[in-house]
Amino acid sequence: MVEVDVPRASAVGAQSFTEKPPGFSVRPMQGSDEASALARIWHVTQVDAHDDGDETLDLEATRRYIDCVLLPLHEVIVAASGGVPVGFLALRRNHVAQLHVAPAWQRRGIGTALLGWAKAQGWTRLSLSCIRERVGGFYEASGFRAKRVIRTTQACTYVDYEWRLRQAPVMYASAKHTLTVALRSTVQIPSP
């Protein structure tokens, strides 16, 4: 894998969520050949998240789940560097079912760019579930709010999160010749 110098996620925060730092691209999954790479990314992030030595996490079972459930039922978007997947997002309607970034590529704006892609699809609301202690801070920094606690164990808290578009995705002109565009950007229109 080629290492590319990519700005940290904090540097990306000032950008619009449809922009991404240089060094990787966000695109639709390109064929089932990439499923093995996605399985490895998912597997390593899950093993890391469940550092209690959970032996039920099996790479081959993860690949079968991706082939049989994830790909047929979800839109899968890949973040790739040099053509090699380094992260992915699976979206089913307005629910983010999976978001995984390879550990060596985390904190480089990839998760933010993948979520930005999902936000730009026209949904006024996105939902997801996660372990608060592991990634809740990332989602909260990305504009998601905790809706409810699903369950709590000794090790972690599982939470449903939701993101809502703060402005209706419409355009309108005001008397001052200002055009307000969806997603909170404003463009000045010169007077005739």
TrEMBL record:
Keyword Transferase annotated: yes
UniProt cross-references to PROSITE patterns, sorted A to Z: GNAT
Record-annotated N-acetyltransferase domain positions: 24-168
Keyword Transferase in annotation: yes
Pfam families: Acetyltransf_7
Keywords: Acyltransferase, Transferase
Name recorded for this polypeptide: GNAT family N-acetyltransferase
